[in-house]
Design goal:
This protein has 193 residues and is of the alpha+beta class. Helices cover 19% and strands 45% of the residues. The chain contains five helices and eleven strands. It has an eleven-stranded antiparallel β-sheet. β5 and β6 form a beta hairpin. The radius of gyration is 18 Å and the shape is globular. The termini are far apart.
Length: 193
């Protein structure tokens, strides 16, 4: 009987995760374009703010930071190119090196919300979900994502990335355009961005 009660208790513990179903409208979005503000808070360093744009089309993405240290990161499903201000050649990463990053997984393969994360709805007003990766990567030993959705629960208004050092990076989105017609040229390696 003790084992039976233990099983019931475990089921009750995980019950909120089953009912905290993440809305599919954002998951099913193939492409989007958005302007973002990024604020990074770390207990050891001063707060850092940045702004930019993000375009996503399938597994392709383009992050362009427009303030502070200007930089562009382009992913084309095979490689990731990062252009830093003042450098003539991009840093080049193989897709596999970064594809396990939970934040990038969420952006470029939104369906992983259902398979790679444990989900929990933690607020109804505003609607907020906490996503914890089921597995950790070598470069991201622990990362928790908190997603705040708009009132219709169709798109994210903010994503918080919390890492093992308690650093919190918050992306706040505006001008969200779903199914944007994005030219392929946005996701191609550039000689000079």
């Amino acid at each position: 009987e003790t084992q039976h009660r233990s099983g019931i208790m475990k089921f009750l513990l995980f019950l909120p995760l089953f009912f905290g179903v993440f809305p599919d409208s954002f998951v099913q979005t193939d492409s989007f374009s958005v302007t973002f503000t990024q604020v990074t808070q770390n207990p050891l360093f001063p707060e850092i703010g940045d702004e930019g744009t993000l375009q996503v089309k399938g597994c392709k993405f383009r992050f362009a930071y427009t303030t502070n240290e200007k930089r562009i990161t382009i992913g084309n499903c095979r490689e990731v190119y990062q252009y830093l201000e003042g450098q003539s050649e991009p840093l080049v990463y193989q897709w596999e090196e970064l594809s396990q990053n939970p934040f990038l997984q969420l952006l470029i393969n939104r369906d992983v919300i259902h398979t790679a994360f444990v989900r929990e709805k933690i607020s109804d007003d505003p609607v907020v979900y906490r996503l914890v990766p089921k597995e950790t990567g070598k470069d991201t030993p622990l990362m928790v994502l908190k997603i705040t959705l708009n009132a219709n629960e169709t798109r994210p208004e903010a994503i918080e990335v919390i890492d093992e050092t308690q650093q919190v990076t918050t992306y706040t989105f505006r001008d969200f355009q779903v199914d944007a017609d994005l030219p392929e040229s946005l996701f191609v390696r550039e000689d000079t961005p």
